[in-house]
Write a structure and sequence with these properties.
The complex is a heterodimer of chains A (about 725) and B (about 180). Chain A has about 725 residues and is an alpha/beta fold. Chain A has 25 helices and 26 strands. Chain B has a single domain, classed as Alpha-Beta Plaits, CATH 3.30.70.20. The relative contact order of chain B is 0.26. Classes of the chains: A alpha/beta (about 725), B alpha+beta (about 180).
Chain lengths: ~725, ~180
């Protein structure tokens, strides 16, 4: 059939379709089955940056164009398979909303009006403002908000400049409570990537952790294998999560009552003597006091609090004990829910201790690491004043900077004024609760510079915006997290940046030079830096460039194999009873506080993750938005009938303080309790430059006008907001 | 002879959409269109609910109505593995096959021809798994030859309960879901 008759057929058969021969030709060239024979495919190993897991990957470039990205089989995190965000990560490269050149604000802050400038001009402004703040207030008055591995060079420049106010929302707004709860118990935290031995666990307990919806790749892979081999899975969640659908026991707990359930489990395990006595005798401290304290918390006591029947509590406690020590009570990751989260995490740590699972196969392994020397830089100047995030050590167990503490200091000017912010790769309007407070803090600043890949909401408030090249276009520092088997992974450029975007190392180095801090960057470019570090670790940079990953020798990761059973706590043991907590005026063993029920007729707002998106940073990636373009609000089906909403109806949520959300579709479902609603975090963007995302779905953060601060460590409990539902008119 | 099939373990699948996005990048499927997709089937009343999550696509039926209804011969059975393909050159975009397919597996590509899953025959014929199978982080998808009784797909079907979609349509689908 010739082209002419084909087109005629098209005209007749599908009137709305206009096809030109030229377009069709292009489509055919895009068809790999046809093009494969003539194509040149270049494969470049690197590691992903769509989330903090940073899996090893291999990107394919076909005929000079980025084609696809797959897992690197050598990589211990991905095992050759990425998650959907990783696979769709290439969409970040051709995201039409990317920042293309440095921008300087030309009107009022927050008005989002800009002129494009050169890097020279932009960095001169940044350096000049930083010098001014340094001379007016001291370098500590400049703070950095950062996220993930990409921020390391920026941190280096800021420390060289003289500030210790370097903070990551990933502590106080995410994993901090968990890390503190575990450190109080074991003297160490679950780390990232977590030391969870899901691969070998016989019984896995997930408390609000929705593996499979949060796509922490290694964990999801191991979890799927665990399901496949018939491991016993216990899921505690007010929502019937994907993980719940794989569980032997699903416990639809009343939100905010997890500590009651944990105490009742511990009560059963202690009273029925189901714990690992030998392990506790050897490693435990204060067990008898602990046992006495949990004595009143019977399953019958917990039943009215949690809604979980006493027999189910007993059965699940016995189930855990049956498989110990290969019983993993998952520490979770995003754990700032109710404001008593460090204590809830400590209760989870203690339940693991009763199972004897810390340091044991199927529990939580001891991380193995490679000795990779840091680059020898000159020492940083000592700041004249201590960090401003936690004045008077108000939160005595905060062992990292509290991001909301920096925000508080910026608002109050106490303990000293914070007049400049640099924000790297974290959209603070979404990553900190109560956006009005963030904006109030910004209004107190003399200067705000944002480094980002897209014109995010926080970039909209900046004075200067610096466009970063994405992970597929740059080198970064080495990826060397301690893991089951130690490794070094390399991120290296796959394709060129499409416009005037620059890698973070170049931005950090050039800025340092403009600040007169060039001595802190003795290397010429990052390849020289990386080559030095890889060589210092005794490895070959050429091999790393070729393979993307170099594995270190296996080391013992379980106590039984010879991993050191040391605990960096005051007693040098696992602290069932915490004297340091008691001395600081806190409960030495976690106690339960009944959660605030919220205004009558309202629903507790819960939020979580979708496997296709990361935080609020992937909603302009066309490939990922094609998978999920907006979030929905999960509402119990019976409640939906009562309120007169059908699946797919658009509604708005109004929180207890009158804040009204963007419109969002109802998901009327039997998968959630009737006293709460649920939505995926990160949608409902308002920044007009995020053309692919703006107005799609609703923002949970906007509705978080309240948060409950954890008295131990300053984390912000975010599951404490309540909403009513209004029809969209 | 060979009879290609996919066996998908619904117990492992978490519905993450990795198979969907991998297909898009592998084949350059235009935005807004998909050759594969995720279906969630829920039964029961909270909290006693059962959820089956399935990765779905063309079933590469043994008795494909999309082939028998095609006026130009564009929809055809490939000479290897019984894979159902569409010859874009022969396709006139008449949509008869869209109407005939009980699985809603086909769509009209913006360039005018009908498009759908090819079982990644270009990969399979080079000894690779289909893209969706190769990326799945849960290892829930398996591809192979049903005519080979020692193949992984044959062994899985011999050892586990399974179902296929709309068997009553009589199309003899070649995608099987382990339960």
């Amino acid at each position: 059939m010739n082209q002419l008759s084909r087109r005629r057929f098209l005209k007749i058969g599908a009137g709305s379709i206009v096809a030109s021969a030229g377009l069709r030709q292009a489509a055919r060239l895009a068809e790999p089955a046809r093009a494969a024979a003539q194509s040149v495919v270049r494969r470049v190993p690197t590691f992903c940056n769509i989330c903090f897991w940073e899996c090893g990957a291999i990107a394919s470039v076909r005929d000079g164009k980025l084609w696809k990205i797959e897992g690197n089989p050598l990589d211990p995190l991905s095992h050759g398979r990425l998650c959907p965000r990783g696979t769709g990560g290439i969409g970040a490269q051709f995201d039409p909303d990317r920042l293309r050149s440095p921008l300087i604000r030309v009107s009022h802050r927050g008005e989002d009006k800009w002129k494009a400038v050169t890097w020279e001009e932009a960095l001169n402004v940044v350096a000049e403002k930083m010098q001014k703040i340094k001379s007016d207030y001291g370098p500590e008055s400049f703070a950095l908000f950062t996220h993930s591995l990409g921020g390391r060079f920026i941190q280096h420049t800021m420390r060289a400049y003289g500030t210790e106010n370097i903070t990551e929302p990933s502590f106080a707004q995410c994993r901090g409570p968990r890390d503190v709860g575990f450190t109080l118990t074991y003297g160490d935290d679950p780390r990232s990537p977590e030391r969870t031995d899901i691969e070998n666990a016989q019984c896995i307990v997930l408390i609000g952790s929705h593996l499979g919806e949060n796509m922490h790749n290694t964990q999801v892979q191991e979890f799927a294998h665990a399901v496949g081999r018939g491991a016993s899975i216990i899921v505690v969640d007010p929502r019937f999560s994907v993980a719940a659908s794989k569980a032997k026991y699903y416990l639809p707990i009343k939100p905010g009552t997890d500590i009651a359930l944990l105490l009742a489990w511990m009560n059963v395990i202690v009273s029925e003597k189901l714990y690992d006595k030998e392990y506790i005798d050897k490693y435990g401290f204060g067990f008898d006091q602990f046992a006495q304290i949990v004595q009143p918390y019977t399953p019958e006591w917990a039943y009215p609090e949690t809604g979980i029947e006493p027999e189910t509590i007993r059965a699940t406690a016995r189930e855990m004990a049956r498989y110990r020590p290969a019983t993993l009570i998952h520490p979770g990751r995003h754990t700032n829910w109710y404001g008593d989260d460090a204590q809830r995490s400590r209760a989870i740590a203690l339940l693991n201790a009763l199972m004897g699972s810390w340091g044991r196969k199927g529990g939580l392994w001891m991380p193995a690491s490679l000795d990779i020397p840091a680059y020898p830089y000159p020492p940083y100047p000592k700041p004249a004043r201590p960090a401003a995030d936690n004045p008077g050590n108000k939160y005595p167990f905060a062992d990292q900077s509290i991001s909301t503490g920096i925000r508080d200091a910026t608002i109050s000017g106490q303990p000293y004024p914070i007049k400049g912010w640099m924000v790297y790769s974290t959209n603070l309007i979404y990553s900190l609760p109560s956006p009005p407070e963030t904006i109030r803090a910004i209004q107190n600043l003399d200067f705000l510079v944002v480094i980002d890949t897209v014109p995010s909401e926080i970039a909209g408030w900046a004075d200067v915006v610096l466009p970063e090249s994405i992970y597929l276009e740059r080198y970064d520092d080495l990826h060397t997290n301690p893991f089951k088997q130690p490794y070094i992974a390399l991120r290296q450029p796959v394709v060129d940046a499409p416009a005037d975007q620059k890698p973070n190392w170049w931005i950090a180095k050039t800025l340092a030079e403009k600040l007169g801090l060039g001595a802190y960057y003795p290397w010429k470019d990052i390849e020289e830096y990386l080559a030095w570090r890889v060589k210092a670790a005794g490895c070959s940079f050429e091999q790393l460039k070729r393979d993307g990953v170099i594995l270190g020798a296996k080391q013992p990761i379980y106590f039984d194999e010879g991993a050191a059973a040391t605990f960096d706590t005051p007693s040098k043991k696992i602290e069932f009873y915490s004297v340091q907590l008691q001395r600081a005026g806190f409960d030495p063993v976690p106690k339960y506080t009944r959660p605030d029920p919220g205004p009558p007729g309202s629903y507790r707002l819960l939020y979580g993750r979708a496997p296709m998106h990361t935080f609020s940073r992937t909603q302009t990636n066309p490939l990922l938005m094609d998978l999920e373009s907006e979030n929905s609000v999960w509402l119990n089906a019976t409640e939906a009938v009562r309120l007169g909403f059908k699946n797919g109806d658009y509604v708005r949520l109004r929180n207890q303080d009158g804040v009204l959300s963007n419109r969002i579709a109802v998901k009327a479902t039997e998968r959630i309790r009737p006293d709460c609603v649920y939505m995926v975090h990160g949608f409902g963007h308002t920044a007009k430059g995020l053309r692919g995302a703006v107005g799609k779905g609703a923002s949970d953060t906007q509705l978080m006008t309240r948060y409950k601060t954890d008295p131990l460590m300053g984390g912000t409990g975010l599951h404490v907001n309540f909403v009513t539902i209004e029809p969209e008119v | 002879m060979s009879r290609f099939a996919m066996v998908i373990d619904t117990r492992r699948c978490v519905g993450c959409n990795d198979c969907v996005v991998a297909c898009k990048t592998e084949h350059g499927v235009p935005l807004g269109y998909s050759r594969d997709w995720i279906t969630e089937e829920l039964h029961g009343v909270f909290p006693d609910v059962r959820l089956e999550i399935r990765s779905e696509r063309c079933n590469h039926c043994e008795n494909p109505p999309c082939v028998s209804c095609c006026p130009t011969g564009a929809s055809h059975i490939h000479d290897r593995g019984g894979v159902v393909l569409v010859d874009h050159e022969k396709c006139i975009g008449c949509k008869a096959c869209l109407a005939a397919c009980p699985y809603n597996a086909r769509f009209v590509h913006p360039d005018g021809y009908v498009d759908k899953c090819t079982f990644c025959i270009h990969r399979v014929e080079n000894g690779l798994d289909p893209a969706c199978v190769s990326v799945c982080p849960t290892h829930c998808m398996h591809f192979g030859d049903l005519d080979d009784e020692n193949s992984e797909v044959s062994r899985l079907l011999a050892s586990r309960p399974y179902h296929s979609l709309i068997p009553e349509a009589g199309t003899k689908p070649c995608i099987f879901y382990l339960t």
